[in-house]
Amino acid sequence: MKKVVIFNGSPRKDGNITTILDTIAQGVRDTGAEADYRILFKMKFMACQSCFACRIKGDCIINDEVHDALQKVREADAVVIGSPIYMMQMTGPVKNLYDRLYPLMDTNGMPRYGRKKFVAVYSQGSDDPSLYRSYFDYTAAMYPAYGFDLIDTLVCTNATDPEAADKNRALKQRAYDLGQSLVL
Ligand SMILES: Cc1cc2nc3c(=O)[nH]c(=O)nc-3n(C[C@H](O)[C@H](O)[C@H](O)COP(=O)(O)O)c2cc1C
Questions:
Q1: What mean pLDDT value characterizes the chain?
Q2: Mutation choice for ligand 1 from 18, 85, 161, CB with most ligand atoms inside 8 A
Q3: Residue 19 CA, closest ligand 1 atom number
Q4: Which of the four pLDDT bands, split at 50, 70 and 90, describes residue 139?
Q5: Sign of CA dihedral 106, 109, 110, 115
Q6: Is 82 in the pocket of ligand 1 (CB under 6 A)?
C-alpha cells in the first residue's frame, strides 16, 4: 500500500492549512492509500541538537514524536508539509521539523532513503500569491538532498480569514486531485 505522510504546521484547528491538508488526505485515502497525518503543534518534540549522530547512524538519537514520524517518512512514497506564513517565513515548528529531517540526507548531501513526491502548502494573510515566491523557491532548494521531488506548491491567500480555503472551490479541488496524484 502506498503511504503519504502529512505534517500540519498550523496552530489553528480549523484554519486554512488544516482545510487544505485534510482535503489532500481525503484524496489520498479515497484511492485506498494510507495518509499518516501529524499536527506539529500537538506533538512534543525537540529542536535539532546538532549532535551529528545522524551523519554516522542515518537516524536521529532523540527519542520523541518526530523520531517516530521520521521512521514513517523514511518508508513513505510522498510527503506533504503545510505551514502558515508568519513574519514572512514558515512557522517555528515547521522549521524545527525540517531540521529534524536532517537524517534523510547522507554525508554527501544525497538522499539516504530514496526519492519521494513532495507537496508544499502555505497560507498567508496577503492577497498576492507571488509575494513569497522567492522564499518558497529558496526553501525548495533543500528538497533534493532529502529526496523530495517537488510536485506542487499550494498557496492560500487572504488566510487571516480561517475560512478562506474552504470558500475557494478551485483550491480545494486542486488539493484533492493532488492527494490522488501522489499515490496513483
Ligand atoms: C505572528 C504572525 C505573523 C504573520 N506574518 C505574516 C506575514 O509576514 N505575511 C502574511 O502574508 N501574513 C502573515 N500573517 C497572517 C498569516 O499568514 C495567516 O493568519 C495564516 O496564514 C493563517 O493560517 P491558517 O489559517 O492556515 O492557520 C501572520 C500571522 C501571525 C499570527
A1: 98
A2: 85
A3: 26
A4: very high
A5: positive
A6: no
162 CB less than 6 Å from ligand 1? yes
Confidence tier at 13 by pLDDT (50, 70, 90): very high
Burial of 100 (0-12, 13-18, 19+ CB in 10 A): buried
Residues in the chain: 184
Residue 163, pLDDT score: 98
User: pTM value?
Assistant: 0.98
Q: What cell does 173 get?
A: 479541488
Query: What average pLDDT does this structure show over 8-28?
Result: 98
Cβ–ligand 1 contact at 89 (below 6 Å): no
**CATH number of the structural domain spanning residue 44:** 3.40.50.360
Domains: count for the chain: 1
